[in-house]
Amino acid sequence: MTEAIEERLRAAGVSLPDAAAPAANYVSYVLFGSMLQTSGQLPLDAGRIAVSGKLGADVALEDGQRAARFCAINILAQAKAALGGDLGRIRRLLKLTVFVASASTFTEQHKVANGASDFLVEILGDLGKHARSAVGVPSLPLDAAVEIEALFEIA
To answer: Which of helix, strand or coil describes residue 8?
Structure first.
């Protein structure tokens, strides 16, 4: 299964970055039994926030979806680090929690979250179908537009 995931990443033109180190007093992921929980991942591209600001104010929906996709790429990078490089150990993506920095009138957080959901289903196939919450918040670390955490079942 690792090969299939890596092939899908290549076909999507994605090379996973090195997993980002924690920026404070926490760990990037926790393995417990058959579960892998990632900390929230920001829309980092080459170590920098790719999309900052608030949806419904200075960030367009399409840019929010792009931010969510970057978050999903970074989630897979954390999963790969946690699993010793073997993404084939993923049995199922169980849940995404998506935080969207939003103006008070913005109500399309679910559409922003699709940027991550669609990408993860594309890369993981049926194993990527998941439960999800999409929540609007007034601000996120480093003025990121989106932050996402994930829960996986693993072998």
So the answer is: helix
Per the prediction, the chain carries an average pLDDT of 97
**pTM beyond 0.85, yes or no:** yes
Mean local confidence (pLDDT), 41-46: 97
Give the dihedral sign, CA 58/63/67/68: positive
List, in sequence order, every residue forming a beta bridge with 48; answer none if it has no partner.
45
Domains in the chain with CATH codes: 2-13+29-154 (3.30.1330.40)
20 to each of 38, 40, 76, how far by Cα in Å? 11, 11, 11
**CA distances (Å), 118 to each of 77, 115, 142, in order?**
17, 6, 25
Question: Is 86 in a helix, a strand, or coil?
Answer: coil
Which of 42, 28, 23, 149 lies closest to 93 in space, CA to CA? 149
The answer to whether 18 touches 43, Cβ cutoff 8 Å, is: no
- Cβ atoms within 10 A of the Cβ of 65, count? 22
Write the pLDDT tens digit of every residue in 23-32. Answer: 899 999 999 9
